[in-house]
Each structure stands twice: as C-alpha cells, then as structure tokens.
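We were asked to recover a plausible sequence for a given structure. The inputs and outputs are reproduced exactly as logged, with field labels preserved.

PROBLEM: sequence recovery
POSITIONS: 200
GIVEN STRUCTURE:
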C-alpha cells in the first residue's frame, strides 16, 4: 500500500535529518560527524551552517573545534570544500580520490601541471610544511619561490591535487580563513577500514 507524504511533512523530515528543527544538542564536532560532510566552499557561511545545527553554539565554538583539530576542511568529493570530522577524512579520500583525480586530468594538462610538476610540488610541500602551517598566500609564495607558478587557477589546483593525496588539509583558523597543514601532522594516524570487508 502506497503511503502519501505531503510537502509539509517532507520539509519537517528534511529539517529533522539536517538537524535544523529541532536543533541538536551536543558538540559542534558531533554535528559535523553526524552530517558526514558539510559543504564549506564559503568559510564564513560554513561556520554558520554548523553552528545553526548545534544548540547553544557560537562561531567561536566552531572555530575552537577547528583549532583543536577535531574538524577539518578538505575536498573529499565533487572537488568542493567540505567540513568533515578529522577521523573521517582519510577513509573518504581513499574511496573518492582516484576517480576525482582521473576526472581532473584534462584540467591539469590545460593548466600546464604535468605529473612531474605536481610530484615536485608534493615533495616541496612535504618538506617545507612539516610541523608548521601556512596561509593560502604563504603557500602560493612557496610555490613561486620554487619555480612553480601559482597564477590563474594553477595554485588552487596544486592544493586540490595535494588534498586528494591526503597530504594537506585546511586546519587551524588563520585570520578570516584557515591555515594549510600536513594531514599527518594534524590528524592522528589511523587504520583505514578494509574496503573488501562485508557487513554480515
């Protein structure tokens, strides 16, 4: 027997699932973990999107969770920035990065970012970012000083590539944005789930 659900009920269920009505109790990190991945292309609006779903929280609470490394911002799907719980980043990228990089291959080529250049950028980043953090502007200067032009969309696509390798993510707040950090510095090591394991 078919069950008819009206528009108002669909809206109520969507708001409930999205933790908008009722607003969930708990922490900012619990909210991000529940949502799995919250679109965060616009940093300011992403802070609000998490805060509005966490009862009693403020912008400062979301920033504090970023500062503690409980949540991070990266590109785990669709080439779009998302907030995710830190412990979820590696396994998500393990599932999505190969296909994402394959889909970006032509764009890399059009920007003159061949494999050798991208691998050199990865080596430079691993060396120079170890134990530290950089703003976007500082990272672009790092690329430029090492002979890799970040002009146009090249710098963004280098970060995109490094993110897909689980090499970097956006971590602690830095001014009105976040600083770039090495994933291995910022997120504790963990064992990834076995992709071949079947749930019984």
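RECOVERED SEQUENCE:
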């Amino acid at each position: 027997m078919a069950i008819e659900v009206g528009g108002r009920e669909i809206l109520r269920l969507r708001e409930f699932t999205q933790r908008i009505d009722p607003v969930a109790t708990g922490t900012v990190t619990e909210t991000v973990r529940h949502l799995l991945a919250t679109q965060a292309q616009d940093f300011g609006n992403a802070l609000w999107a998490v805060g509005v779903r966490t009862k009693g929280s403020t912008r400062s609470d979301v920033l504090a969770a970023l500062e503690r490394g409980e949540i991070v911002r990266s590109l785990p799907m669709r080439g779009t920035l998302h907030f995710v719980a830190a412990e979820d980043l590696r396994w998500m990228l393990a599932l999505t990065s190969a296909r994402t990089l394959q889909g970006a291959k032509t764009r890399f080529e059009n920007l003159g970012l061949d494999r050798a250049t991208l691998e050199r950028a990865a080596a430079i980043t691993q060396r120079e970012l170890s134990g530290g953090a950089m703003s976007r502007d500082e990272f672009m200067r790092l690329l430029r000083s090492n002979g890799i032009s970040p002009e146009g969309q090249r710098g963004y696509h280098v970060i995109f590539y490094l993110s897909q390798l689980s090499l970097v993510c956006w971590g602690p707040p830095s001014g009105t944005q976040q600083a770039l950090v090495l994933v291995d510095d910022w997120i504790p090591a963990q064992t990834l789930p076995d992709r071949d394991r079947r749930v019984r």
